[in-house]
Hints:
By secondary structure, this protein is of the alpha/beta class. The chain is built from four helices and eight strands. The strands form two sheets. It has a five-stranded mixed sheet, covered by helices on one side. The longest helix has 16 residues, at 2-17. The model is unreliable at 149-162 (pLDDT under 50). The structure holds copper (II) ion.
Amino acid sequence: MKYLTLGALLFLARVATADVCPLTINATDDMRFEQDTLQVETRCTDVEVTLHHTGRLPANIMGHNWVLTKTGDVAAVANAGMGAGLANSFQRPGDARIIAATKIVGGGENAVVKFSTAQLERGVSYSYFCSAPGHFSMMKGRLVLNAASTSSVARNVDRAEAPKP
Length: 165
Ligand SMILES: [Cu+2]
């Protein structure tokens, strides 16, 4: 009986958490992301990105965020965000080009954002960057979907590509 109970618990735990994939990215006082690529495995239905600011400088001096868009939207979204101010984490409110984003953090702080991979399409290039004014030319990288095609991500993408009514 004990085995059955433990087995049931393990099964439930696996169902509840299996497809949320954690990723961590570090941002520094010298205006860099320590990772220039983040890989998302195809089994991930959701991604939870933790931005960690490894430095000591406060948010109003060297604050960083993590913003995900299509690669072709990076410059326009960064420019639109510049005028939004620190209070809006340098993101234009309601900017539909932003797929996922954290708030701005200062040294020693973390921020977390979770998003669904269902909105990511195969064959499209995605990039992340920091939208603090002047940072995106230094602070950007690629979010890469692993190409294996039999996962839940691939099925989600197929649905997303179906003709819209
Ligand atoms: Cu930054």
